[in-house]
Amino acid sequence: MAALDPPYACNLSAMREIPGAWRRTAQGAGLLSDTGAAAPTIFAEMSALAAHTGAVNLGQGFPDEDGPAAVLDAARDAISSGANQYAPGRGVAALRDAVADHQQRFYGLTPDPDTEILITAGATEALAATLLALIDSPDDEVVVFEPYYDSYAACVALAGARLVTVPLRWPDFQPDLDDLSRAVTDHTRIILVNDPHNPTGAVFSAATRQEIVRLAERHDAIVVTDEVYEHLVFGEPHVPLATLAGAHERTLSISSAGKTFSTTGWKIGWVSGPADLVDAVLAVKQFLTYVNGTPFQHAIAAGLALPDDFFSGVAAALRAKRDLLGVGLEAAGFTVSRPAGSYFTVADARALMAPGTDAADFCRALPERVGVVAIPLTAFVSRPHRADYATLVRFAACKREDVIADAAGRLAGLAGLAR
Ligand SMILES: Cc1ncc(COP(=O)(O)O)c(C=O)c1O
Fold this sequence. Notes:
The chain is of the alpha/beta class and 419 residues long. It contains 13 helices and 13 strands. Helix 6 (150-159) links the parallel strand 3 and strand 4. The radius of gyration is 21 Å and the shape is globular.
């Protein structure tokens, strides 16, 4: 691959001799190079390539349209009316009340907004604070489903625990329950469950959900859920693990506003669960950001109160985009795994790859070949397991339909090009 220009190349030599926890964090995320330097994430690299080449960016998962006007207006109103100073440590009361109402309306859960809900700087901070708060020993293990959202491995490593992976295999990406049962032991401190799942778009079956809770009870593990795509499901409504019998008292549920309201830049998230677990997360979170985004917290409170048809409309719009993207990918020669939720579609590029190359090579060349950016699935997989995902590519469907159609048209050109 050609060397990247300075604006998006990482200075690979700058951090080499600096001791600190950054090193195990980067290593956990698979970003520590052989020379001991931290490499940029594949998302930074690919977004830079998109900017550099003018390619259509189906790489990073952010929408290219604004969210509901009512939510945007509520943010402006909050700023105009002076909601511009620190929020209370647990988050503004209006948003904690709105999260509680949302949990009741959609799932029948009844968290106490004063003690069982904590507002965070996106799901990312909620995840980091939760892992840092609950991990206590290098013998602690965190079970995740692989491929996994990249912050999980980074934060588990930062917290000093061991990552234990349960594979999700092409094409339906459902875990094998025997694999799951072998992964969870008395060393398991946390089972971290992302459902609907990034990057695969899988929605876990009822049997998987039940097995997770059964194993957590049996081994006295805490369940931490990442439900940021809770409203982006294309079939049955989302089922939070916290609603299962026996789960509530050991489950911290994490979500955020970014995906539901197309406000990924606002970074408003939340964690809910039993008061003692939420207190433990707060004890760490208050020294990370303390609080964030007061006017945006007010705006998301307004968003969470929108009528049911807003939420079903978000899912229906994304489903149409998923279908458009899937048809385009198949027409271009990919084999497609049809996602049940989330922003993403995973496709097998084997038929379009040059012999001896993998999906990372394919994605690095794609902007120059046809002007599209996508992410190799290996970016979400630990080093020892990358070969199992070597031909798979993740495409984001959370873009305007004309953008997806444009990308599909460009990808159709792959068939006529030399590999
Ligand atoms: C699975 C998953 N969890 C967490 C996040 C981060 O959420 P937030 O932007 O609210 O921090 C993302 C964002 O892409 C995600 O895909």
